[in-house]
Specification:
Blueprint: H1 7-20, H2 26-39, H3 44-58
């Protein structure tokens, strides 16, 4: 059985947990979110997407 979780949902949970445990302030979380939106509109977006895809493809093979 394969369980898939969207990366956006996983990252949202991480941000909520960081805010809840006060490991990061609300201002920093907003700044990082805005940086992500601006990064998505640059030429680096394809490279970042390829890196994330390669990482998520490699994770299942780590324990083998």
């Amino acid at each position: 059985m394969t369980l898939t979780i969207p990366l956006v949902l996983l990252l949202a949970v991480v941000v909520v947990m960081l805010l809840r445990f006060r490991a990061v302030g609300a201002g920093a979380a907003v700044a990082v979110a805005l940086f992500g939106f601006y990064l998505a509109h640059t030429g680096a977006a394809d490279t970042v997407n390829q890196l994330v895809t390669a990482f998520t493809d490699a994770v299942p093979g780590v324990g083998r």
